[in-house]
Amino acid sequence: MTRSERAVDVLIVGAGPAGLAAGAELAAAGAGRIEILEREQEAGGIPRHCHHGGFGGRLTRGGVNGPAYARQSVAAAVSAGAGLRTGVTVTGWAGPRTVETTGPGGLERITAGAVVLATGARERPRSARLVPGSRPPGVHTTGELQQAVHLYGQRIGTRAVVIGDEPVAHAAVDTLRAAGVHVVAVVTDRPAAPLRFRQRTPLLTGATVTGLTGRTRLSGVSLRHDDGRTTILRCDTVVFTGDFVPDHELARRGGITLDPGTRGPAYDAAYRTSRPGVFAVGNLLHAVERAGVAADEGRAVAVSVLHRLSGTDEPSGGGRRPLVVDAPLRWVAPNLTGPGGVRPLKDRFVLRTARRLSRPLLAVSQDGRELHRQRLLLPAVPGRPFHLAADWLERVDPHGSPVRITAL
Ligand SMILES: Cc1cc2nc3c(=O)[nH]c(=O)nc-3n(C[C@H](O)[C@H](O)[C@H](O)COP(=O)(O)OP(=O)(O)OC[C@H]3O[C@@H](n4cnc5c(N)ncnc54)[C@H](O)[C@@H]3O)c2cc1C
């Protein structure tokens, strides 16, 4: 089949909060022909199916529910002059800044002066979590559950178990209740959960899912407790929550370097990936932050894209040093230094830990030289972001080894 070929100034892949904000900002700045491509039939990203409040930021002045936030984000991009096409999936690359797409109009090849990847993140499904047992209907992630309930009005079940204790587990519990489903328990393998659940939801800590049972429909979740006991929770629905991974497939197919910690593209404070002219923003970079953070990054990338288009971009090679973390820290973002003079959003790096740390002392060093020390005022908790100031960046040797971050 033949592909039609076109060129635009900026191509943005993904119309969630990050991609839409980037499109709005670039169009308002007069960056030329901006096109945002979205594989779903409706633009807006994850907020489209989050019917709870709590979506805020500059756009909403206080907070609205997800669908309202999505509508406002779409309206801001379109009214600024960005082109938005839905039902169009970017499937691969045909050159450094040329992508291949498939959509209602057929196959296309689009070349851009700059490409912004804003493909978001998704929860790891049951198969990727290596949960053994049968494969009956009734098994969801939070995103799938919300789409089934809020976008398609589907019936879910009657008794549900929610797995996970990241904040998104609250959203799963709320969605199940809105659908009239009884929540049997929230289960976490951690000894103590960082979350408190509203409305008397039983919370089982220190319990690991060892299998799912049921043939034509889920009938139970088998658990092994830390003390060696085993139990089966009878239910017809299970929701695997949290444990997000960046939707990095397109970046990976393009040979763009991924950070081993975040598993999103490695990037610097200007949102530049390993490929010149290809930028990345939003939860693709650090699964997951709030929608307002993704949108702030979308707005911030515009400056870097404008530099690229006008040829005033600082070369991205040599001077960028990787930032690496020692366990139990899991990752840091941005995870490359540079370019000179550009600071990360809000002048700080975001980090995650694999286990709870009580007010850790974070040390930044390079080649045995300490660049910075900072005591956190609060505990660092798995699944939640915490931050490291960026005011040591000018002390990095651009020719030195990777910069190391350790929790002491
Ligand atoms: C259940 C849940 C509840 C949440 N609650 C809140 C909350 O209360 N408040 C808050 O601030 N944040 C909340 N968040 C987080 C918020 O939704 C995210 O931070 C935000 O959506 C991230 O924006 P994004 O643009 O990076 O990614 P996304 O919103 O995921 O958008 C990415 C878009 O890219 C598209 N895409 C991917 N690949 C391709 C491709 N190859 N071609 C074309 N299109 C593609 C996807 O279809 C998607 O629309 C919640 C998240 C979840 C999962």
Task: Provide structural commentary.
The protein is of the alpha/beta class and 408 residues long. The protein folds into three domains: 4-122 and 244-316, 3-Layer(bba) Sandwich (FAD/NAD(P)-binding domain); 125-240, FAD/NAD(P)-binding domain; 345-407. The protein is built from six helices and 24 strands. The chain has helices at residues 17-28, 66-80, 142-151, 168-178, 249-253, 291-310, and strands at 4-13, 34-38, 83-86, 89-95, 98-103, 106-117, 121-123, 139-141, 159-163, 182-187, 203-204, 207-213, 220-225, 230-234, 237-240, 244-246, 278-280, 323-325, 329-333, 348-353, 361-366, 369-375, 386-389, 403-407. The strands form six sheets. Strands 1, 2, 3, 4, 5, 6 and 17 form a seven-stranded mixed sheet that branches. A five-stranded parallel sheet has the order 8-15-9-10-11. It has a four-stranded mixed sheet with strand order 18-24-21-22, with no helix packed on it. A hairpin with a 2-residue loop joins strand 21 and strand 22. Helix 1 runs parallel beside helix 2. The longest helix has 20 residues, at 291-310. The structure holds flavin-adenine dinucleotide. Flavin-adenine dinucleotide is lined by residues 13-19, 37-40, 45-47, 50, 52, 54-55, 89-90, 118-120, 142-143, 146, 168, 171, 247, 250, 282-283, 288-292, 294.
